[in-house]
Write a structure and sequence with these properties.
This protein is α/β, with parallel strands linked by helices. The protein has helices at 13-29, 35-44, 69-80, 103-110, 131-136, 151-164, 201-211, 251-261, 290-293, and strands spanning 52-53, 59-61, 90-92, 95-97, 121-125, 143-147, 169-172, 186-192, 212-224, 232-233, 248-249, 264-273, 310-317. It has one domain: Rossmann fold (3-Layer(aba) Sandwich), CATH 3.40.50. The protein is globular and about 60 Å long.
């Protein structure tokens, strides 16, 4: 079933359907440009898994006993087509994928405040390869929609879920800027690792607010700078070598943004400094990572001389 049919009546279904079709037509027409990711996705689709377990740190899809050694080689080759792997870890028919981010650590931090998901409509904005969506499945949401504009992550999730066959998980090539098409739609919305990439963060949070149903809950996780005053860093060009980073707030600043956007019951429930334990190079992500972004002579500073990043977790509600 197309996820659009499962959205509440408040959704702008015609506009979403049109945009969805345009996106699908576009990726179909870009035959050569997207073969790098479409081809491994199509290979993985031939291997539906009997055993799937999303209850522990590693998302397990398939057991080695389900496939032949030759099939395992095919699967490994296809999985390598999605390098660099950012979010995880995963185990695919016995192949262990050690991703750049140890995403299970973030999931454990938000678990104490995880809202009720059973029977709910959930959005994961910037869902990447869907690691957190898979982790939600044991809580039995009716529908989880991942909005992800990256072709690489889109095809990676499609390949993974073709094997995992979690029918309540869906992804679309949309971004946070498309939330106005989903007014009053979501009971729970996850916005993790996104807000500091937006040039107008309060406007983005207002769109998030509008997309939540009455009584809905936002789980917001963000890069941040340490400190108590409600201020935000605005880097000249890059922050920790990352372009497209606009405002990096303190926790109190982020709470003020949420208030301005209309949220209530705002609680900052976790804050911690980043480290290379959590984000690092692996065989599945061989490019620069956290240790390359930090001043080697002063771990409290980025290579640009800005305060080194913290991460903050906030829960907020729409009355």
């Amino acid at each position: 079933m197309n996820y659009i049919e499962q959205l509440p009546d408040s959704a702008r279904r015609d506009q979403i359907s049109t945009l969805h079709k345009e996106k699908q037509d576009w990726i179909t027409q870009q035959k050569k440009g997207f073969l790098r990711y479409r081809t491994p996705c199509e290979i993985l689709q031939a291997f539906p898994a009997e055993h799937v377990d999303c209850t522990d740190d590693t998302v397990v899809i398939g057991d080695p006993a389900e496939i032949t050694p030759q099939e395992q080689k095919q699967i490994i080759s296809a999985l390598e087509g999605f390098i660099p792997w950012r979010k995880g870890p995963f185990s695919i028919f016995g192949t262990e994928i050690d991703t750049e981010w140890q995403s299970q650590r973030k999931w454990k931090r938000l678990l104490p405040k995880l809202p009720e998901l059973k029977g709910k409509i959930v959005a994961d904005i910037g869902c990447s390869n869907g690691y957190y969506m898979f982790r939600m499945t044991p809580y039995r949401p009716d529908l989880v929609i991942g909005l992800e504009p990256s072709i690489q992550h889109y095809y990676c999730f499609k390949g993974l879920n073709a094997m995992a066959r979690q029918d309540n998980l869906h992804i679309d090539l949309l971004g946070v800027e498309h939330l106005p098409l989903f007014p009053e739609c979501f009971d729970v919305l996850f916005l993790m690792g996104i807000i500091y990439h937006r040039s107008s963060p309060v406007d983005t949070l207002r769109d998030v607010f509008t997309s939540l149903a009455g009584g809905g809950t936002l789980i917001l996780e963000s890069q941040a700078i340490p400190g108590d005053p409600p201020t935000a860093l605005f880097p000249e060009k890059t922050y920790a070598k990352v372009p497209g980073t606009y405002f990096v707030p303190t926790g109190s600043c982020l709470q003020n943004w949420l208030r301005r956007a209309g949220f209530s019951d705002i609680e900052l429930f976790c804050q911690h400094p980043m480290s290379s334990i959590e984000q690092r190079r692996t065989d599945w992500m061989q490019f620069e990572s956290y240790s390359d972004f930090i001043d080697p002579d002063n771990p409290q500073k980025t290579v640009e001389g800005y305060p080194a990043p913290h991460r903050v977790f906030i829960i907020a509600r729409k009355k």
